[in-house]
Amino acid sequence: MATPAPDVSAIGAALRSPAATVGEADVEKLRLIEELTSDVDAVQERVLSEILGRNAGAEYLTRCGLDAGDTGRATFRAKVPVVSYDDLKPYIQRVADGDCSPVLSTHPITEFLTSTGTSAGECKLIPVAMDDSGRRQALHGLIGPVLKLQVNLFYMAQGQYVPGLEKGKGLNFMFVKSETKTRGGLTAWFALTSVYKSKQFKSMANAYTSPTAAILCEDAFQSMYAQMVCGLCQRHDVVRVGAVFAAALVRAIRFLQLNWGQLAADIEAGELGPHVADPSVREAVSGILRPDAELAEFVRIACSKGDWAGIITRIWPNTKYVDAIVTGAMAQYIRTLQYYSGGLPIVSTSYASSECFFGINLRPMCDPSEVSYTIMPNMAYFEFLPVGEVVDATNLVDLARVEVGREYEVVITTYAGLSRYRVGDVLRVTGFHNVAPQFRFVRRQTVLLSVELDKTDEAELHRAVERASSALLRPRGVSVADYTSRACTERIPGHYVGSTGSY
Fold first, then answer.
1. pLDDT band (50, 70, 90) for residue 174
2. Within 20-71, where are the H helices?
3. Which end of the chain is more exposed for a tag (fewer CB within 10 A), N or C?
């Protein structure tokens, strides 16, 4: 029977007796979480006042009818409409094209994060203000103390002690994509690329087995190969294995299945073969890769048997958890990761998008099906549109007034000038930490399969695949590793067509 995850009340207990679970350096960060979640409405009122005060005079808010002194909620709700990306696109495009006037924000827009536009297939440009990265970095710094606390408590409950967890390394598979410049000369890149190229991330290089050059290599094969070989060479230092999204970690294990022979050969030789040609990557890996016949033979034995159950803990024996987002569309990979990891806890630490950093999972060691995120009220002004209700400015609910069990579409107002912006994510309220609501990600609002009059969202599709897999495949010792589906109208009546991969 699995050990239950520690309750979030453990944070309060740690503050009363921090030495038992976390060091003194983390106490202030845990205390900040307690402060932010104890008076959510007051924090949200302050945040909205700050946003409206600093962006007073911006063209968009002026056109909405807000004057310089209008920083209250009532006036904001009455005058500022609820909008989608298409509504703000003309303003965003002007900034991208080089308009330096205060269009959306009076603080300079320094770059754009590119959203994949999963709801409509288009690439969206999300403005980033000068101080946004610092705000995100500060909140991201809260994750470490929470995770350290919960991991320690989780293993202490099993009679184990995890010394020096923060001194171990992460085998986290991280990748970048090429960046572009807008007509006005501003950088436009994916959020993760901006993180991995930041000074803050480079200062944390020792926390990972992958050298920075390998992470920043835009050739996916060379990047994956270099990160894998470095992870193998440092296998006893690894305390966590992961990727931002579960799909990327599954892809990494599949890469190992296909390339273990060449990896072992390079480890035995102590040198990368010609398949990795990037000079900066070769130089970075040369500082880690040394001739090691014993390790090469270990890799061959571990990978040649065709038994991939528990491969993560067999190759990286000190791994304490798997680090990957497994909510929403990534939920389909939970069983696969459990299979590869031998049942290690799967941790989803935070909830963020290109538009905003939303919150933290305060119970990161919980079962993946129970992941909820506590919204941090200082990151933006949050409102919630009850699912099923007409989109109207008067229907939105404040963060402090959502109801447990209800589903809402999240609407944000950010420091960078997005005002009452529909993100498109549907969340369900699962409970509270202090008075801060906790949300479970349900789905993207507009990600639907539709045929005839039927509409099926990704959560319903996932449940259908799970039921079919349980009834038809698992009795035969087969499980679904991945799947996709589309609407087919070539025959009448229309129907859904799916394809799966199995292990």
1. very high
2. 24-36, 40-54, 59-63
3. N
SS3 call for 79: helix
Lookup result for tokens 């929470």: 146
User: Tokens 């007051």 belong to which residue?
Assistant: 42
Question: Which residues fall within 8 angstroms of residue 106, CB to CB, at 6 or more apart?
Answer: 54, 55, 56, 57, 58
- Pseudo-torsion of CA 411, 416, 419, 425, nearest 10°? -20
Taking the domains of the chain in order of start, what are their residue ranges? 163-319, 457-502
Whole-angstrom distance, CA of residue 394 vs CA of residue 402: 14
- For the record, the structure tokens of 213 come out as 């050059």
Tokens 């420091």 locate to: 415
What was the pLDDT predicted at 464? 57
Judge contact between 406 and 426, C-beta under 8 A.
no
Amino acid letter at 117? G
Question: How many residues does this entry show for the chain?
Answer: 503
Say if residues 250 and 337 touch (Cβ distance below 8 Å): yes
> HSE on the CB side for 50, CA within 13 Å?
14
8 Å CB contact between 21 and 149 = yes
Instruction: Quick: pLDDT tens for 85-98.
Output: 999 999 999 999 99
Please give the share of the chain, as a percent, with pLDDT higher than 70.
82
> What is d(CA 127, CA 137) in angstroms, rounded to the nearest whole number?
17
Which pLDDT tens digit goes with each residue over 103-154? 999 999 999 999 865 444 568 999 999 888 788 888 888 998 888 888 887 8
What are the tens digits of pLDDT across the range 320-371? 999 999 998 899 999 999 999 999 999 999 999 999 999 999 999 999 999 9
Q: Using omega within 30 degrees of 0 as the cis cutoff, is the peptide bond preceding 386 cis?
A: no
Rounded to 5°, the CA angle 221-222-223 comes to 90
Query: Half-sphere exposure of residue 336, counting CA atoms within 13 Å on the CB side?
Result: 23
Average pLDDT of the chain is 86
